[in-house]
Design brief:
This protein is an alpha/beta fold and about 200 residues long. The protein contains seven helices and five strands, in the order E-H-E-H-H-E-H-H-E-H-E-H. The structure holds flavin mononucleotide.
C-alpha cells in the first residue's frame, strides 16, 4: 500500500512534524507500507493562477515542484497531511499545494465525462494532523474543512483528524500526556481500515 505523507509546517522538527512521525511509526507497524514523504517546505510551489488551463486540459500549466507531487495524488492509497494552524487556517505552504489540486479536480470530471476511472486505486483514504497554540472552540474548523475538500477533489475519502490545542513552542507536543501516542494509534488504525 502506497502511503503519501505530506509535512505541511515550515518549522523542521516542529510539533506537526513530530505528530506525523508518530503517525507513520504506527502505520508502518500495522501494515505493509510503501512510504513516500513530502516536505512541502522544501518545494517551490506557486499559487494557482486561475488561468483555466486545467479546465480544458486536466493538467496544470505551471512547471514547478508541484509536478513532482501530482503523480502521487494518482497512485497513493492512503494520504496523510499535517499542518500547524496559521491564522485559523492551514500554513500558507500547505494551502498553496491544496489550491493546486484544482488541476486533478478538473481532470477527475473530464475523465468521468469520458467514462474513465479518474484515479487508479479505489478505496483511497485521507487523514489530517494539526496543532495550534490557542484554545478556541472553533480552532480547527477552517483547516478541517479545507482538507476535507482537498481530499474530495482528488477522490480520497476523509477518514478523520487528530488535532491538539495549546501546543505552541517547538517540541511542546512531547509534553502532552497522550499526544504522540494518539497519533501513533491513529496511524495504525488508518492503514488497518479501522477508520
Ligand atoms: C504565522 C503563524 C500564525 C499562527 N497562527 C495561529 C492561530 O491563528 N491560532 C493558533 O492557535 N496558533 C497559531 N500559531 C501557532 C502555531 O499553530 C503553533 O505554534 C503550532 O504548534 C506550530 O506547529 P509546528 O511546530 O508544526 O509548526 C501561529 C504560528 C505562526 C508562526
Amino acid at each position: 500500500m502506497l502511503l503519501l505523507a505530506m509535512f505541511g509546517s515550515p518549522r523542521k522538527d516542529g510539533n506537526t512534524d513530530l505528530m506525523m512521525e508518530s503517525f507513520l511509526e504506527g502505520a508502518l507497524s500495522a501494515a505493509d507500507i510503501e512510504l513516500q514523504k513530502i516536505y512541502i517546505r522544501d518545494l517551490k510551489i506557486s499559487g494557482c493562477q486561475a488561468c483555466g488551463y486545467c479546465d480544458e486540459h486536466g493538467v496544470c500549466v505551471q512547471q514547478d515542484d508541484m509536478q513532482k507531487v501530482y503523480p502521487f495524488f494518482d497512485t497513493a492509497e492512503r494520504i496523510v497531511i499535517s499542518s500547524p494552524i496559521f491564522f485559523y487556517g492551514l500554513s500558507g505552504q500547505t494551502k498553496l499545494l491544496v489550491d493546486r489540486s484544482q488541476a486533478p479536480y478538473m481532470r477527475k470530471y473530464k475523465r468521468k465525462a469520458e467514462g474513465q476511472a479518474p484515479f487508479s486505486p479505489t478505496d483511497r483514504k485521507g487523514f489530517f494532523l494539526c496543532a495550534g497554540a490557542t484554545r478556541g472552540k472553533r480552532l480547527f474548523d477552517c483547516p478541517v474543512l479545507t482538507v476535507r475538500y482537498f481530499f474530495y477533489a482528488i477522490d480520497v475519502a476523509y477518514a478523520g483528524e487528530v488535532c491538539f490545542r495549546e501546543i505552541d513552542e517547538k517540541g511542546a507536543i512531547r509534553r502532552h500526556p497522550t499526544g504522540l501516542e494518539e497519533c501513533k494509534q491513529a496511524g495504525a488504525a488508518f492503514v488497518s481500515n479501522e477508520v
